[in-house]
Design a protein that fits this description.
Bound molecules: zinc ion
Strand order of the largest sheet: 1-2
Number of strands: 2
Strand content: under 5%
Order of helices and strands: EEHHHHHHH
Number of helices: 7
Structural class: mainly alpha
């Protein structure tokens, strides 16, 4: 990444990163490469994908908030495995077939922790710890939709 660019804010998540919104997306691409390249980092893959997607909902489909919030709820409250390649098939099928998936309005403040905070992690243990911290801060930011997510999962 070109660090000579002035620091600016990502218009989605509010992170202060060189290159703003585009720079923020580049940071996310970098952490994906790390997660796919090393299973110790990949252990939290679904958490980072959901946290990033929920903080950048303008970049995804209109129903993506609901889908990512449901999976985040499963990861944080139901012990769903977060590593690369473990997205449960039944869940994916349910999501794809459910036309009732609501359009969830993203919160004004999408959480204090962002993808920029993942980069300083010294090792995989710290990376995993930061990923949980990030995911919990995003989950908390979406608290207005917790009731909906928990009910949806309970009814299935
Ligand atoms: Zn961002």
């Amino acid at each position: 990444m070109d660090d000579s660019r002035p620091r600016s804010r990502c218009t989605r998540c509010g992170a202060k990163v060189p290159g703003g919104t585009k720079g923020c997306r580049e940071l996310f691409q970098e952490i994906l490469v790390r997660e796919y390249g090393d299973p110790a980092y990949g252990a939290v893959h679904l958490l980072t994908v959901d946290a990033y997607a929920l903080q950048h909902s303008e970049d995804h489909g209109p129903r993506s908030n609901a889908v990512h919030l449901l999976r985040l709820c499963m990861l944080l409250e139901h012990g769903l495995e977060a590593s690369t390649g473990t997205n449960p098939h039944w869940f994916q099928a349910q999501i794809e077939s459910d036309r009732e998936m609501p359009l969830l309005e993203p919160p004004q403040n999408r959480g204090q922790t962002t993808v920029a905070d993942m980069h300083g992690a010294a090792n995989a243990d710290e990376y995993v710890e930061r990923a949980y911290h990030w995911a919990r801060s995003v989950w908390e930011a979406y608290r207005a939709h917790h009731g909906w997510a928990r009910r949806w999962l309970q009814e299935r």
